[in-house]
Amino acid sequence: MFERIKEIKQELEKIKIENEKHLEEFRIKFISRKSVVGELMGGIREIAQEQRKAFGQEVNELKNLAQAKFKEAISELENKNSTGSTDYTDLTLPNIPHQLGTIHPLTQVREKIVTIFQRIGFNVADGPEVEDDWHNFSALNFPPNHPAREMQDTFFISKDPDILLRTHTSNVQIRLMEKQEPPIRSIMPGRVFRNEAISARAHCIFHQVEGLYINENVSFADLKNTLYYFAREMFGKNTKIRLRPSFFPFTEPSAELDISCFICDQKGCKVCKHTGWVEIGGCGMVDPNVLESSNIDSEKYTGFAFGMGIERITMLKYKIDDIRLFFENDVRFLRQFQSLS
Question: Which is the most buried residue in 40, 189, 232, 262, by most CB within 10 A?
Answer without folding.
Answer: 189
